Amino acid sequence: MALPTDKPLQEFALIQGLQHRYARHAPGLVHGIGDDAAVVETSSSRWWHLTTDLLAEGIHFDLKTAAPESIGYRAAMANLSDLAAMGAVPRYLLIALAIPKTIRQPQVYDLYRGLMRACRPYGVALIGGDTSASKAGLFLSITLMGTTAKRRALFRHGAKVGDQIYVSGTLGDSLAGLQLLTKSTIARSSTPRRSQLSRSHRQFLIRRHVHPTARVAEGLWLNHGRLATAAIDLSDGLSGDLRHLCKESGVGAEVESDNIPLSPACHAYAKAYHVSPTQLAITGGEDYELLFTASPRSRSALERQARARGYRITRIGTIRPQKFGIQMTSQGRTRPLPLTSYEHFR
Amino acid sequence: MALPTDKPLQEFALIQGLQHRYARHAPGLVHGIGDDAAVVETSSSRWWHLTTDLLAEGIHFDLKTAAPESIGYRAAMANLSDLAAMGAVPRYLLIALAIPKTIRQPQVYDLYRGLMRACRPYGVALIGGDTSASKAGLFLSITLMGTTAKRRALFRHGAKVGDQIYVSGTLGDSLAGLQLLTKSTIARSSTPRRSQLSRSHRQFLIRRHVHPTARVAEGLWLNHGRLATAAIDLSDGLSGDLRHLCKESGVGAEVESDNIPLSPACHAYAKAYHVSPTQLAITGGEDYELLFTASPRSRSALERQARARGYRITRIGTIRPQKFGIQMTSQGRTRPLPLTSYEHFR
């Protein structure tokens, strides 16, 4: 379909354009975009998992520094990451947009392109949504649905005292990437520090921020194999998300901070900019890695299977009784894990 | 639970407050608010219906003239009406809010109170959501899920040539109520016209706008009894929504405009303010009545059962071939139905 270029946005024309562009048959989909509701088939042998996010211009993204394609991509990835943390297969997507007059149709198409680029590897189908004008700012609401087998999901509330704490991937990269993007004009004019950070490390960190990867396959593996006792995705940062998991499980935690996995690029960034890489890893949000707990009995199976599948997982601590609190240990010294969770209301 | 009064909004505290206030067990709900996703059980004998809306301050509501409780109530009702038009039982609700600094916690609680007041008669459970800051304006996103029996739903695409066109209730009341609310300061200072409109008629019209009723029971009846061939809810107005139904069904329509059901209050309003009541009925959105089509063979069963159940339905026209277009007939004269659908992008 030919794209309209820069005509004023017309709600129905836009919906029809997107319907033609992205509507396709998907397993279990009875009726997608174009009726009062989307209709899907279900099965008694499955649980449905639903997650929703509302992203606001100036809070979650800045149209002056981020491309609409990346905004869409990251928004979808944040929701895919929520389903990964449940061990669910992502299936269906609903998108609602409130669009200010300053946005032109090609930008809206770019946003959808990013959303669908994130979803396509998982076979997620766009089944519905809503579009509206906005007096001020672009707002994007996503609802994502996924499935697991019945009575088989990763909850936040299953961690037991003595369980080992793991994370996937490396932490802090997304925050370092964001800082590089926002510092980029300064860095370009005064280059002494920048010279210590190679071009490939810069690109790695920026890519980790702009195009993160939800750990959907890792979540499915942990859930199918009954390998984890609890899980959450790292969207608010290790400090905040570990707190959520502990609260729901009624436990405390001891994090061995020297074991937190860091990428070579994050180490190089921390050295170049004289910041603590551990601090980046603890406070940085939007890594979209999985934080999960596992019984010590599962340790060898977990670590062997992860190696065989090429999944990076790292043991970073131990679940303790609730009265222990949430502590961080480094070189024999124990202190409370800094409370630096990302909160939107600031 | 005691309500916090006017502390600055804290995302997690707010979520926890709402969780305690509205979380309850609901049939099929495995896990509600508090994990990465909400989890529900499903059944192979059912279809799931999903609808989502994003409402923007200054576009869909004005905090200067509308109470937060009414904003929440109407937002939920709009989505309940979408499910009514599918013939579905509403089940689960997800709410996402972007909240500017100017909004205080009690207003957010009032908004939720309105949302839940609309949902409670149907046993709908709040199972998840998201909250965020907003740089400009209050934004509210709702996702509502409902169920029908498998292969049993009211779609827009089933209308056949010769089918009769019906609407529930009366049309135009919501627009008249909105005009009364926005004209109220003028009306108070210059009373001659106002005197022609009784207090009870004013109250009726304003109530129809502020606290509309989705026709959930009527939708279930039409669907269970296989009485309708197609259905849509009247949110954009008769002119726009009949067009949607005809487009999806590949048909035209002839509306007998003198048969459009009008309330005595709407008649009185039209007389007092020298406007056409038919025009109000055709162009007015947000009545949340059902527009549906039925085979002429179903006519006697439909009208008999509606009387027995106390549902008001009115036959307003006939489905014609697509090439007939969408026409309006009055006293022997036929002309195109005015194209006055409510579009958000203006």
Please summarize what this structure is.
Two copies of one chain form a homodimer. The first copy, chain A, is an alpha+beta fold and 346 residues long.
Strand element count of chain A: 13
CATH superfamily of the largest domain in chain A: PurM-like C-terminal domain
Judging from the principal axes of the Cα atoms, what is the shape of chain A? globular
Name the helicity range of chain A.
Answer: 25-40%
Strand percentage of chain A: 25-35%
Strand order of the largest sheet of chain A: 8-10-7-11-9-12-13
What's the main sheet of chain A like? 7 strands, mixed
Task: Point out poorly predicted stretches of chain A.
Answer: 1-8, 185-190, 342-346
Structure classification of chain A: alpha+beta
| Broad CATH class of the largest domain in chain A | Alpha Beta
SSE order of chain A in H/E notation?
A: HEEEHEHEEEHHHEHEHHEHEEE
Stated plainly, the CATH topology of the largest domain in chain A is called Phosphoribosyl-aminoimidazole Synthetase, Chain A, domain 2
Oligomeric composition of the shown chains: homodimer
Cα gyration radius of chain A (Å): 21 Å
State the separation between the terminal residues of chain A, measured CA to CA. 43 Å
Assigned CATH architecture of the largest domain in chain A: Alpha-Beta Complex
Q: Look at the structure and give the mean pLDDT of chain A.
A: 89
Number of domains of chain A: 2
Number of helices of chain A: 10
Largest interface: A-B, 74 and 74 residues
Q: How does this model look, in words?
A:
- 2 copies of one chain form a homodimer.
- Chain A is α+β, with helices and mostly antiparallel strands and 346 residues long.
- Chain A folds into 2 domains: 11-149, 60s Ribosomal Protein L30, Chain: A, CATH 3.30.1330; 156-329, Alpha-Beta Complex (Phosphoribosyl-aminoimidazole Synthetase, Chain A, domain 2).
- Chain A has 10 helices and 13 strands.
- Chain A has helices at 11-22, 68-84, 105-119, 173-189, 199-210, 216-224, 238-249, 264-272, 277-283, 299-309; strands spanning 29-31, 38-41, 46-56, 89-100, 125-134, 139-149, 164-168, 230-233, 252-256, 290-294, 313-320, 326-330, 333-336.
- Chain A has a 7-stranded mixed sheet, with helices on both faces. Chain A has a 4-stranded mixed sheet with strand order 3-6-4-5, covered by helices on one side. A two-stranded antiparallel ribbon of chain A has the order 1-2.
- In chain A, helix 4 crosses helix 5 (199-210) and helix 5 (199-210) crosses helix 8.
- The longest helix of chain A has 17 residues, at 68-84.
- Chains A and B meet through strand 2, strand 3, strand 4, strand 5 and strand 6 of A and strand 2, strand 3, helix 2, strand 4 and strand 5 of B.
